[in-house]
Design goal:
The chain has a single domain, classed as Archaeosine Trna-guanine Transglycosylase, Chain: A, domain 4, CATH 2.30.130. It has 2 helices and 7 strands. It is about 15% helix and about 35% strand. It is an alpha+beta fold and about 130 residues long. Strands 1, 2, 3, 4, 5, 6 and 7 form a 7-stranded mixed sheet that branches. This is DUF1489 family protein. It comes from Sphingobium wenxiniae (strain DSM 21828 / CGMCC 1.7748 / JZ-1).
Length: about 130
């Protein structure tokens, strides 16, 4: 089973803006990180799950990693956002590993998630209480 990463969709005003940014890149999208993940070999076949408004909103399959030549690394991604069932996730700096068993399932085409309509603050509070 592949390993995944989580990362904040920094600068994205909405999941739609994140999708537009990803899709604007031909071939691959890139985001940078200071350190190469120690478990990068386990990330083959994995995805980067994006956090927006304290919840996981989608994922982008990871194509690989590459040095930028400036002491940083690119996380190379497929230029698409696969919607996932919304799942509360606290913001963090950098990236964190996400095990396959803990990853939210993908949403099918045209499938809506009832939690998507819920305000992020309310969703976070319900999650904290263990109700969602």
């Amino acid at each position: 089973m592949p390993l995944h990463l989580t990362k904040i969709a920094f600068g994205a005003q909405s999941p739609a803006a994140l999708r537009a940014w990803l899709e604007s890149h031909a071939g691959e999208a890139r985001t940078s990180t200071r350190y190469m993940p120690k478990r990068f070999e386990e990330l083959a076949g994995g995805s980067l799950y994006w956090i927006h408004s304290s919840q996981l909103v989608g994922r982008s399959p990871i194509l690989g990693f590459e040095e930028t030549g400036q002491g940083r690394f690119w996380i190379r991604l497929e230029p698409r956002l696969v919607p996932v069932r919304a799942m509360p996730k606290r913001p963090h700096q950098g990236w964190r590993y996400l095990e396959e068993k803990d990853a939210p399932p993908d949403l099918g085409s045209g499938e809506a998630d009832d939690l998507d309509a819920m305000p992020p603050a309310l969703l976070g509070e319900l999650s904290r209480l263990g109700l969602v």
